[in-house]
UniProtKB/TrEMBL annotation:
<dbReference type="InterPro" id="IPR000178">
    <property type="entry name" value="TF_IF2_bacterial-like"/>
</dbReference>
<feature type="region of interest" description="G-domain">
    <location>
        <begin position="275"/>
        <end position="423"/>
    </location>
</feature>
<keyword id="KW-0342">GTP-binding</keyword>
<feature type="compositionally biased region" description="Basic and acidic residues">
    <location>
        <begin position="96"/>
        <end position="106"/>
    </location>
</feature>
<dbReference type="GO" id="GO:0005525">
    <property type="term" value="F:GTP binding"/>
</dbReference>
<comment type="function">
    <text>One of the essential components for the initiation of protein synthesis. Protects formylmethionyl-tRNA from spontaneous hydrolysis and promotes its binding to the 30S ribosomal subunits. Also involved in the hydrolysis of GTP during the formation of the 70S ribosomal complex.</text>
</comment>
<dbReference type="Pfam" id="PF00009">
    <property type="entry name" value="GTP_EFTU"/>
</dbReference>
<dbReference type="Pfam" id="PF04760">
    <property type="entry name" value="IF2_N"/>
</dbReference>
<dbReference type="InterPro" id="IPR027417">
    <property type="entry name" value="P-loop_NTPase"/>
</dbReference>
<feature type="compositionally biased region" description="Polar residues">
    <location>
        <begin position="31"/>
        <end position="40"/>
    </location>
</feature>
<dbReference type="InterPro" id="IPR004161">
    <property type="entry name" value="EFTu-like_2"/>
</dbReference>
<dbReference type="GO" id="GO:0003924">
    <property type="term" value="F:GTPase activity"/>
</dbReference>
<keyword id="KW-0547">Nucleotide-binding</keyword>
<dbReference type="InterPro" id="IPR044145">
    <property type="entry name" value="IF2_II"/>
</dbReference>
<feature type="domain" description="Tr-type G">
    <location>
        <begin position="272"/>
        <end position="441"/>
    </location>
</feature>
<dbReference type="InterPro" id="IPR015760">
    <property type="entry name" value="TIF_IF2"/>
</dbReference>
<dbReference type="Pfam" id="PF03144">
    <property type="entry name" value="GTP_EFTU_D2"/>
</dbReference>
């Protein structure tokens, strides 16, 4: 048989859980609360013990009212009578009360209902028609008799009740109980949230808070009306009322991602939307020239005034279709956005100069795009140049999985000259074709949601943010939450600085009206009303602050094993940087062979050269560890890695690097420590104390000695003993540390052979930080 909970058993025995807990403990069982469970044997023992206890209580006519509220068996009417006046409400005090009036219950059905059974059990046992619990409970709330028992003031109330009953007999109508509130019926289901208090529950149950508190007391839970209740307690309470309890799933208004995802999932009213394109490539390969060319020759709707300001994104109209370009400054912005969870790019255009070929940033760009899972269109640029060799570029790119269709792959390649406007239209055609294949759609009819492209503080206008609408339509005046900021869309401009009233999916807009400056990559969601937007924004700002405080670190080799154990990891993303290509390959191949507990190494980027900021942003976005072989991070990359908790491991020996990763995956990584001497003490005097051993009195000559230092005893330049400090005192008081120039007293753990003129070197083991 399964184990039983104390509260269930108590219910069966019709006694307060608290009392049963006491009985159980008296019986030598170690029971903590009403939620503790007992074995079937223990339950049987408790049933027995409880019966004994009941009988005893019944015999004791003047027992303590509070303690004697357990039930008596229905077959012992006389016992019932004896115990009844002292019974408390809760289990079946009114049943006893009713018996007190003989069989009047039959004649006075209503009276009986109000005074009779308080639980189904007693109803059954008394062989009376069983009423539903809800009704029983209705009648229970806050009536006179209840209170009479509660306060042990039975006599007075008995009189009053008798009077009532007499009145009823005379009038032959339902009893009128002046102090009894007409309780509304209980709800079918108690919908609650954890942490509600008796007052909250009282409102839902249409009962008085006092009744709830009372009931909880009977269930062994002592609370006041304002105390928060946990889930178990609320469920027990509901069970006691005989109704179902259901936890209300509270909508977290601050969970923008959820709103955002819900909006994205909404498949209604879907219409095609323009693609969002990012152009990436190596320095000087022609990104800016390409974007400028596209922009100037295809300005949106050929508006008069043309381009007046850059807002980090713009739309061009080509063949009567719109394309949105993100004008992100370099890869960092791109992966920073991704690190913040915003994948706003649909298509990446990779610009590679035909005269220069694949360069480090080309590879970085490929890896960024792959990590973001966006299709790549290759624009082989500068084909006008004499040294241009587009085929060589294509060949190089096949190594990175970018194979053109006519070579059997599925990557679109377009040979262009950005400077001389050659094949730019073809590139745009290809973008539209790719977009068509992707069937990019959105619902313009819902509330807007999207991401921040960039944001800044404008002296005159306050926070200004460029947003990309990804879903729905945004209007001027919309209440909005953007990242951890909130407000109302006060003004909305398009990329040409023109005021617009609404913005549909894939439209970049510049808005004002926020309370603070959000960050690039933050998501935004339009809310129904400003009040909720404000509440959500404030909550988000608060949470962000808390998060910042308890900043969760990225995966490092030190926490890798724990992360793996928690099942949070299937692959360990690694970025390899080394001094020569040979080392890059050797390291990559060996690392890929490691497989521990089904977790594999995934090399997301490998290259020759120093560890750059771009490596760190990629590591941050992909939660990767960076392994450097014979290379160092640039100062900026180092500080970025430090502030973002990115693990950079530097090695000079390949097998050590492999060993370290393997050890980390097996949870065997030992932190590396180095010794650091922190100070010296010269022993001047020795005291022997029978209890503590040898106490050395001396002077700190250099540095300091701290209570947690390790110590080394040096005599005539020779290390005599190495161990732990036992105690450290300044005069008579324990000291945490004593600095140079001050006297101190100390003992060494498990060592007493200290002599005058010995030198005690204090040192600490410090974990070696990442170089
Ligand atoms: N001949 C020729 N030159 C080009 C072409 N495209 C760009 N250039 C030149 O290449 C140089 C670099 O072009 P940018 O557009 O500034 O290159 P970028 O990739 O934006 O460079 P960064 O902004 O520094 O990353 C400029 O002098 C351009 O005029 C082209 O198709 N043909």
């Amino acid at each position: 048989m399964a184990k039983e909970r104390i509260y269930e058993l108590a219910k069966e025995l019709k006694m307060p859980s608290k009392q049963l807990v006491k009985i159980a403990n008296d019986q030598g069982m170690s029971i903590k609360s009403h939620m503790s469970s007992v074995t079937p044997d223990q339950a049987a023992k408790l049933r027995q013990a409880a019966k004994g206890s009941n009988n005893q209580q019944a015999k004791k006519p003047n027992g303590n009212a509070v303690k004697q509220h357990h039930d008596v068996t229905p077959n012992h009417a006389s016992q019932k009578k004896a115990s009844q006046p002292k019974q408390k409400s809760g289990y079946r005090p009114k049943a006893a009360k009713n018996d007190h009036h003989g069989d009047s219950n039959k004649k006075h059905a209503q009276g009986q209902q109000s005074t009779a059974n308080t639980s189904q059990h007693s109803a059954k046992k008394n062989n009376q028609p069983q009423r539903n619990n809800r009704h029983d409970n209705n009648q229970r709330g806050g009536n006179n008799q209840n209170r009479a028992h509660w306060f042990g003031n039975g006599k007075k109330n008995k009189k009053r009740n008798k009077k009532n009953l007499n009145n009823q007999r005379m009038k032959n109508v339902a009893p009128k109980q002046p102090t009894q509130r007409k309780d509304r019926p209980l709800p079918d289901v108690l919908e609650y949230t954890e942490g509600m208090n008796a007052q909250d529950l009282a409102k839902i149950l249409h009962r008085s808070a006092a009744e709830i508190v009372k009931k909880l007391f009977m269930l062994g839970v002592m609370v006041n009306q304002n105390q928060s209740l946990d889930k178990d307690t609320i469920e027990i309470l509901a069970a006691d009322y005989g109704i179902e309890a259901k936890e209300k799933v509270q909508e977290d208004i601050a969970d923008l991602d959820k709103f955002f995802d819900d909006e994205q999932k909404n498949q209604e009213h879907m219409v095609p939307r323009p693609p969002v394109v990012t152009v990436m490539g190596h320095v000087d390969h022609g990104k800016t020239t390409l974007l400028d060319k596209i922009r100037h020759s295809h300005v949106t709707a050929h508006e008069a005034g043309g381009i007046t300001q850059a807002i980090g994104a713009y739309q061009v109209r080509y063949n009567d279709q719109l394309i949105t370009f993100l004008d992100t400054p370099g890869h960092a912005a791109f992966s920073e956005m991704r690190a913040r969870g915003a994948n706003i790019t649909d298509i990446t255009v990779l610009v590679v100069a035909a005269d220069d070929g694949v360069m480090p940033q080309t590879i970085e760009a490929i890896n960024h795009a792959k990590a973001a899972k966006t299709p790549i269109i290759v624009a082989v640029n500068k084909i006008d140049k004499p040294g241009a060799n587009p085929d060589h570029v294509t060949e190089q790119l096949t190594e990175y999985g970018l194979v053109p269709e006519d070579w059997g792959g599925d990557t679109i390649f377009v040979k262009i000259s950005a400077k001389f406007d050659k094949n730019i239209d073809e590139l745009l055609d290809m973008i539209l074709l790719q977009a068509e294949m992707m069937e990019l759609k959105a619902n313009p009819e819902q509330r807007a949601a999207g991401s921040v492209v960039e944001a800044r503080l404008d002296q005159g206008r306050g926070p200004v943010a460029t947003l990309l609408v990804q879903q729905g339509t945004m209007h001027v005046g919309d209440p909005i939450v953007v990242g951890n900021t909130f407000g109302r869309v006060r003004t909305m401009n398009n990329e040409n600085g023109r005021k617009i009233k609404k913005a549909t999916p894939s439209t970049p807009v510049e808005i004002t009206g926020l309370n603070d400056v959000p960050q690039a990559g933050d998501r935004f969601v339009v809310f129904e009303d400003e009040k909720t937007a404000r509440a959500a924004g404030e909550e988000r700002a608060k949470r962000a602050q808390e998060e910042e405080r308890a900043r969760t670190s990225h995966v490092t080799l030190d926490n890798l094993f724990d992360t793996m154990k928690k099942g949070q990891m299937k692959t360990l993303p690694i970025i390899i940087k080394a001094d020569v290509q040979g080392s890059v390959e050797a390291l990559a191949q060996s690392l890929q062979k490691i497989d521990v507990d089904g977790v594999r190494v995934d090399i997301i980027h490998k290259a020759v050269g120093a560890i750059s900021e771009s490596d760190v942003t990629l590591a941050e976005a992909s939660n990767a560890v960076i392994i450097g072989f014979n290379v160092r991070p640039t100062p900026l990359a180092k500080s970025m890695a430090d502030s973002n908790n990115i693990d950079i491991r530097l090695h000079q020996v390949i097998y050590k690097a492999i060993e370290e990763v393997e050890d980390a995956m097996k949870g065997m990584l030992e932190p590396e420590y180095k010794e650091e001497t922190i100070g010296e003490v010269e022993v001047k005097q020795i005291y022997k104390a029978s209890k503590v051993g040898t106490i050395a009195g001396g002077m700190v000559t250099t540095g300091k000695i701290t209570r947690d230092s390790k110590v080394r005893l040096i005599r005539d330049g020779v290390v005599i003993y190495d161990g732990e400090l036992g105690s450290l005192k300044r005069f008579k008081d324990d000291a945490k540390e004593v600095k140079a120039g001050f006297e101190c007293g100390l003992t060494i753990q498990n060592y007493n052979d200290i002599k005058e003129n010995d030198v005690i070197e204090a040192y600490q083991m410090k974990e070696i930080p990442v170089k």
